[in-house]
Write a structure and sequence with these properties.
Shape: globular
GO molecular function: aminoacyl-tRNA deacylase activity
Order of helices and strands: EHEHEEEHEHEHEEHEE
InterPro entries: YbaK/aa-tRNA-synt-asso_dom_sf (IPR036754), YbaK/aa-tRNA-synth-assoc-dom (IPR007214)
CATH architecture: Alpha-Beta Complex
Largest sheet: 5 strands, mixed
Organism: Thermomonospora cellulosilytica
Protein name: Prolyl-tRNA editing enzyme YbaK/EbsC (Cys-tRNA(Pro) deacylase)
CATH superfamily: YbaK/aminoacyl-tRNA synthetase-associated domain
Number of helices: 6
Strand content: 25-35%
Structural class: alpha+beta
Length: 179
């Protein structure tokens, strides 16, 4: 397993998942049947603190960034998955890929309100229908990657390739190294 956490099947602890995530992981059509979950200190949900406290290598942790792409008065929201060691190229690759004139991080209240998830815990699992999910090729290549669970008090562990099977998901080279 990854890090210093007690990973268990997500189906065994639905109380550790936001409602949309719980719904996406339930039943015979589960989005990611192999998803595992671990409880964490919600004060340590932010990536750097989480990785340090729970001994999770940053290259095994992925962030979900919600982007608002605008073109001609229309706004489209999209989720972008990038490794903690990288930065999403919002104004370059992501903006062009979404066919937008302008792209920026979505406001926190909009992102949380529309997803039904907590800030710092947003995950691509269980997003509203129709949202594009852009998965960086480095995330997709990870054998296992830690992502949010929809709430700050837990994390999900799943194969990187599982993110590419979510509705609306595409693999795109959309990041650059931090620094």
């Amino acid at each position: 397993m990854i890090g210093d956490l007690d990973w268990i099947p997500a189906a065994d602890r639905p109380d550790l998942l936001a409602e949309p995530v719980r719904a996406a992981l339930a039943g015979p059509d589960a989005a990611v049947p192999e998803a595992l979950v671990a409880e964490i200190d919600p004060g340590l949900a932010d990536t750097a603190a989480f990785c340090e406290r729970y001994a999770v290598p940053p290259e095994s942790s992925a962030n979900c960034v919600v982007v608002a792409a605008r073109r001609g008065g229309e706004t489209q929201l999209a989720a972008c998955m990038v490794l903690a060691t990288h930065r999403a190229d919002v104004n370059g690759v992501i903006r062009r890929h979404l066919g937008a004139r302008k792209a920026s991080f979505a406001p926190m209240d909009e992102a949380t309100g529309l997803t039904g998830m907590e800030y710092g815990g947003i995950t691509p699992v269980g997003l509203p229908a129709g949202w594009p999910i852009l998965v960086d090729e480095l995330v997709a290549a990870q054998p296992r990657v830690v992502v949010g669970s929809g709430v700050r008090r837990s994390k999900l562990l799943l194969p990187g390739r599982a993110l590419t099977g979510l509705p609306g998901a595409e693999v795109v080279a959309l990041s650059r190294p931090l620094g």
